[in-house]
Predict the structure of Chitin-binding type-2 domain-containing protein.
Amino acid sequence: MMLAANKITLLTFIQILITGSRSISITNNTFLPGVLNRARTTEILFPTEPACDGTRPVLCVGCRTVKICVGLPEPNNPTQLCPTESPYCHSETGACSFIPDNSQADCSNVPPPSSPLLFYCMGEGFYPDPYSCSSYYYCEGESVPGDLYQCPPGYKYNSKARLCQRVPAHCKPELCGELDCTPTAATFKPYPLDDKYYYYCEYDSNDPTAAPRILMIACDDGASFDQNLSRCVFRCPREGLFAKSSNRNKYYQCYRANRRLVYAELSCPVPTQVFDDVKKVCVTGT
């Protein structure tokens, strides 16, 4: 629990730094950080929560929520949501499971999840949830499950600000829509709400009826996905040298050719060196 608290505090600090550089105001609650693994208020709990009686270490108090019996008396025992990879609490054991427990009233209409819906990171950083406008993920690296953050009710995730943005009551929220996984000639498709991201629909070759898993991919900072070229294209802000965010050993050289700003992607001469974006030179990696 302490680790999660430290993580969200760090993320909040990072997000405020980022938005501060973009002159985005967060003082009027227009923008807020999400809550790790959904807030308890988003879960429908049992009308009368089962009480810890010393016979079991954990109890189900909702379809996705468990109570950790660390001591008596009630109500000092904490609750937490099951993790993304096993999101449902099994009432007989109190263990989190991949399959919903249909004996619970609030789970009876929940379809069993399929593994393609699990979010796996394609790199470090923030990623919009391909299945929901009101949540996002933070990834600590590549090929690991992401940490899910949930926006408050009435908010949607703004990937440019990397914060949850309040949707005014008099405005219709911008529709996310489901991402298009219809088989086409295009292998990669742009994320419609932010051209920094694009996605790939991964199909199960052993089960053609299974829903595809959507893999979200981010371009480098300062780059956007070009569907015609089917790759990320760096946008030179001006002439000069600029770091490549996904690979610290590389950098972009922006210069003018035929009155246009173009770029070349270059590498530091030594593999262990990194490009210092302040000094604009390659230095020994740290």
